């Protein structure tokens, strides 16, 4: 199996190093769109893993679509707009696609826990989400935090409130709060605040390797799949 990694930043390098140690992967290459490199510059891969920047999306989609289902794509980049997300969903009509905000097994297990917990507490709790990341992360709130808000409230019955300022009282909302500092790999806490008691569900990442491992598992799983939009849960469970 051959893999092309879009992005040569920290995550791109970690994915490459782990891929080179995987006996199921024969060839690995990185391309960096910021340097003008494209997927057309390398031998055709079986799967592309994108750990780059939203600006690279159009070029990736153009390449994948031209391959008519012969090349799959794992999107691990964050910060996509809703318009970008729609492009990814449309691409799944022509190629096998996995798109996730977070590729760690722990976060995806956390989603399953919240799927069970949130309906039990829906009518008796306020929900807050606190996420912490390193000081180089550009987008906030994190895609994972927004994903967890959707798990807590899948029908968007509550407003998403990103941070607070001033004297406005709390409404029917989910508060989402971002911390950026140091080298924090990633920490997400979902808070269910009831009357006189609080339930907190928390996930902490101690290494970026967990995201690379999940992305590689997704790539191996996606090989030879038909065009379609596949949830990351299909890979893990």
For the biggest sheet, the summary is: 6 strands, parallel
Number of helices: 7
Widest beta sheet: strand line-up? 2-1-3-4-5-11
Which class of the largest domain in CATH terms?
Answer: Alpha Beta
- pLDDT < 50 runs, ≥5 residues: none
**CATH superfamily grouping of the largest domain:** NAD(P)-binding Rossmann-like Domain
What's the architecture of the largest domain, going by CATH? 3-Layer(aba) Sandwich
Beta-strand proportion: 25-35%
SSE order, one letter for each helix or strand:
EHEEHEHEHEHEEEEHEH
**What is the strand tally?**
11
The average pLDDT value, as a whole number, equals 95
User: What is the oligomeric state here?
Assistant: single chain
Structural class: alpha/beta
- How many structural units, i.e. domains? 2
Residue share in helix: 25-40%
Shape: elongated
EC number: 1.17.1.8
Subunit structure: Homotetramer.
Binding site for (S)-2,3,4,5-tetrahydrodipicolinate: 134, 143-144
Pfam family, one: DapB_C
């Amino acid at each position: 199996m051959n893999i092309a990694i879009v992005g040569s930043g920290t995550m791109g390098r970690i994915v490459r190093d782990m891929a080179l140690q995987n006996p199921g992967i024969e060839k690995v290459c990185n391309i960096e769109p910021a340097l003008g490199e494209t997927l057309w510059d390398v031998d055709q891969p079986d799967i592309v893993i994108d750990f780059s920047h939203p600006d690279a999306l159009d070029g990736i989609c153009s390449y994948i679509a031209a391959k008519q289902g012969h090349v799959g794509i794992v999107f691990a980049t964050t910060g996509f707009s809703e318009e970008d997300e729609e492009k990814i969903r449309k691409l799944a009509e022509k190629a096998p696609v996995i798109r996730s905000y977070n590729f760690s097994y722990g976060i995806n297990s956390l989603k399953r826990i919240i799927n069970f917990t949130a309906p039990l507490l829906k009518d008796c709790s306020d929900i807050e989400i606190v996420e912490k990341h390193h000081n180089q992360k550009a987008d906030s709130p994190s895609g994972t935090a927004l994903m967890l808000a959707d798990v807590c409230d899948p029908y968007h019955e509550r407003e998403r409130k990103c941070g607070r300022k001033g004297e406005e009282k709390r409404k029917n909302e989910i508060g989402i709060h971002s911390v950026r500092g140091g080298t924090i790999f990633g920490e997400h806490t979902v808070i269910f605040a009831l009357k006189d008691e609080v339930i907190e569900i928390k996930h902490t990442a101690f290494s970026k390797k967990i995201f690379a491992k999940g992305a590689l598992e997704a790539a191996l799983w996606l090989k030879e799949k038909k065009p379609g939009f596949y949830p990351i849960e299909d890979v893990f469970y």
